Amino acid sequence: MADKLKLFFIGFITGIINGLLGAGGGTLIVPAMVFLLGIEDHKAHATAISIILPLTIVSSFIYLQNKIIDIPLTINVAVGSTIGGIIGAYFLNKLSIPILRKIFGIIMIVASVRMLVS
Amino acid sequence: MKLFLIGLFAGIVGGMGIGGGTILIPALTIFLGTEQHIAQSVNLLSFIPTAIIALIYHIKSKNIQYKIVTLIIIGGIIGSSIGAILAAITKAVILKKIFAVFLFGMGIYEIFSKPRK
């Protein structure tokens, strides 16, 4: 029972963040699965996508209902990001992820400070 | 072209599983001046085709842990509905600040986290 509640709450918190911020669900759920549920890293990444996809569809539907949408912008970005996604998945095993994580961590902190003070 | 490049870069990061949205949303708001709600909506919608393609690959390579996903998804659907409704009624300025705080925390995590094998 406690385990079932744990799974439910992991999903609930991930969902709130992903819906509220339109991102970040994956960044939260991967460490949650690795550290709280003891799932292997690469399996956690794959499983995260199967969880985030339905949550994203539900949130997208609510954003669309509230007319929070820019179709041309979305199409342009989606074309780039789908191609990029394939490139990224391909390079996943060829680059040093720990170093990349640190580089992106720094980019994220710089961006967050810019967003806070703008 | 600028949009395509931002998307491409975010996709590469997303495809490696380091969180494309946490890069895409600040890139759109900082470099293109996109409004916070719209940037979030762009990220949510553009993730759908990307995730479907990735999922096909992951299902084939049997990396999905089916035993745990159902309950997480049920909790997640309730949470993501509440989150999206909250986003719709929150002012862009406030939403941007909340996003920035989350991004800062995740940035710290990315720098100090150690991979587990």
UniProtKB/TrEMBL annotation, chain B:
Keywords: Cell membrane, Membrane, Transmembrane, Transmembrane helix
Official protein name in the record: Probable membrane transporter protein
Family assignment from sequence similarity: Belongs to the 4-toluene sulfonate uptake permease (TSUP) (TC 2.A.102) family.
Membrane topology: Multi-pass membrane protein
GO CC entries: plasma membrane
Record has Transmembrane helix as a keyword: yes
Localization, UniProt: Cell membrane; Membrane
Pfam family, one: TauE
PANTHER family noted in UniProt: MEMBRANE TRANSPORTER PROTEIN MJ0441-RELATED (PTHR43701), MEMBRANE TRANSPORTER PROTEIN YJNA-RELATED (PTHR43701:SF2)
Naturally occurring in which organism (per UniProt): Thermoanaerobacter kivui
Primary location class: membrane
Residue ranges crossing the lipid bilayer per the database entry: 7-32, 38-57, 69-88, 94-112
